[in-house]
């Protein structure tokens, strides 16, 4: 099959990697939630050879992710598992507990109830002192950070009224409620952010 392709992934992978290299310096088992096209996974895994990169998504996206993985030989890159936020997460290797989570461009796509379940899943599945990286656009004090983000939010809501750019304050409340602490808020290209949390 033709591999799915996202130009945005190509544009943002290097700035994201610069942060992940520091945040996941001591991580051993990172789960990517919503691997999408698979482009981030096949780029990050060889650049973070000390850890295992586990891809995941809904089953409908596995074929595309596997098409990218098929062209690699990275032993630390694992084929996708199903992570459905409406259901319990898969049981991962207890000898190698999850100590890192990465997700990009997911919180504004899924519904708010699923955002809540995402954070609940983090609390239930991560080892202590785990690091969490969340990439995407966010509003601050109820305001869009740019006109392009305002236009993007309108497009999202026309496509699915349950989606939309989230308010950072609401996201931080969810994180705090499940025992996560915001460590950094990095500015990223195209008016995006990379939030870094630690499990307390």
What does this structure look like?
- This protein is an alpha/beta fold.
- The protein has one domain (7-199): Rossmann fold (3-Layer(aba) Sandwich).
- It contains six helices and nine strands; from the N terminus they run αβαβαββαββαβαββ.
- The strands form two sheets. Strands 3-2-1-4-5-9-8 form a seven-stranded mixed sheet, sandwiched between helices. Strands 6-7 form a two-stranded parallel ribbon.
- Helix 4 links the parallel strand 4 and strand 5 (131-136).
- Helix 1 (7-23) packs parallel to helix 2 (39-47).
- The protein starts with 6 loop residues before the first helix and ends with a strand.
- The model has no long low-confidence stretch (mean pLDDT 95).
- InterPro entries: DUF938 (IPR010342), SAM-dependent_MTases_sf (IPR029063).
- Pfam families: DUF938.
- This is DUF938 domain-containing protein.
């Amino acid at each position: 099959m033709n591999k799915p392709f996202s130009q945005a992934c190509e544009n943002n992978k290097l700035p994201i990697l610069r942060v992940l290299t520091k945040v996941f310096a001591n991580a051993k088992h990172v789960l990517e939630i919503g691997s999408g096209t698979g482009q981030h996974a096949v780029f990050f895994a060889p650049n973070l050879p000390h850890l295992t990169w586990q891809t995941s998504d809904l089953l409908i996206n596995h074929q595309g992710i596997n098409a990218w993985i098929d062209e690699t030989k990275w032993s630390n890159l694992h084929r996708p598992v199903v992570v459905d936020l409406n259901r319990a997460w898969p049981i991962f290797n207890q000898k190698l507990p999850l100590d890192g989570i990465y997700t990009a461009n997911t919180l504004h796509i899924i519904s708010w109830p699923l955002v809540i379940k995402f954070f609940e899943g983090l609390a239930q599945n991560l080892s202590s002192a785990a690091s969490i990286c969340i990439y995407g656009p966010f509003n601050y004090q109820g305001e869009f950070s740019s006109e392009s983000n305002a236009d993007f939010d309108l497009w999202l809501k026309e496509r699915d009224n349950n989606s939309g750019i989230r308010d950072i304050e609401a996201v931080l409340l969810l994180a705090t409620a499940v025992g996560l602490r915001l460590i950094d808020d990095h500015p990223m290209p195209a008016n995006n952010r990379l939030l870094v949390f630690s499990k307390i």
